[in-house]
Request: fold
Amino acid sequence: MAVRNILCVGLGDDAGAVASHLRAAGWEVEQVSDLLAAGRIQSHRHFPVSLLVLGAGHPVPDGALEACVKASKGSEWVAVCDSQALEKSEFRELILGFFFGYQTLPLDWPALALFLEHAARRATLRQRYYAQEHEAGALGMVGRGSAIKHLRQQIRKVAVTAAPVLIAGESGSGKELAAQAIHRYSRRSDGPFIAVNCGAISPSLIHSELFGHERGAFTGASSQRNGFIEAANNGTIFLDEIGDLPLELQTSLLRFLQEKTITRVGAVRSLAVDVRVVAASHVDLAEAVAKGRFREDLYYRLNVLPIEVPPLRSRMEDVPVLAEHFLRCCIGEGNTRVEGFRRQAIAAMLAHNWPGNVRELHNRVRRAVVMADQRLICPADLGLQAAERIEVLGLDAARTLAERDAICLTLTRVGRNVTLAARELGISRMTLYRLMDKHSIVQCAE
Reply:
């Protein structure tokens, strides 16, 4: 058996015996006798499993325990305590909200060994999930489906050039995330990234906002001001909703793209700037050109490297992964006992059409974290109706739901024993771990 690390926080007389037993069982134990010491060691060392040993009759710690547990990100906590400790409501809530589980004194050593083994496996699964999520989300685009993989490939290709990029996609689909990824993987990554929503600036001010102005150029211009383009020098400027630019300003932007110079409002000299332009629009710019609302020459200047961010409804296989990602982000924002989604919630999300795209999914998950009364989110918490028929889903989404559902139901039926679940499903344990990783199954129930 491989050596595994565990932090043993012993408060009381039983800690020494527990630590000795763990060492004999093959664990590499780091033992501390107070929460301050635990916090110090957690600041520079990661433990997959942390064990709190609260000796018989020892008082339950106050807020220091909660702070210690929350500070140990990625560690699965297990408590050993007597039954009287569980009578304190604050301690019960902490166990329910942030611990993998607990064992009561006197200890059943085989049961504790099995419990810690399950906690270690869950920690490994969590670590593998976040490692893959970090790798896949290094571009800021979480997902594992073919559509998002293709988008990531396109981003990597266009990032290494200096040519303008035009990003198409519906509102809320993640166009700014794509622009940030292009900048992050470009040679300009050390320079500034300036995002400008062209549709959110008053038409009377947008010229000054983009190109800057000199002191006294107009009423209220009491000092010189650099514009967004100049602020992005040696970096990238992201012009979102560029289709909303007034026609007269489109001429100035075209000149900047051609000559790589800008002229502040009220200035007589031009300034050379080195800025890469990434533009985006949720409207069809080619159609806008045909209707005379967008300059044709500017369109072709911008449309050198076109990419399209797919809507969420075209990559439904990514919905469970995105939902889990947003859930983990929301959990990190505040105190909550929510741990995951019920299978009915996953089904409801897969049946929803997502007109608001990824932004809508993020907002619904944030709402659910606040509104949920239980540890697992249900459809009502998301503001969705429970899915009535699986036939309304696409084939890929139905297959994803069915596979995840079968794994969750089996794990629940066998008390989350992976060996028994793999046996019932007719697959190996490693295959089951891989599938749990694929479907981000950290917590799931009926």
Observations:
- DSSP finds 19 helices and 14 strands in the chain.
- Residues 52 and 179 are 45 Å apart (CA to CA).
- The longest strand covers residues 4-11.
- The mean pLDDT is 84.
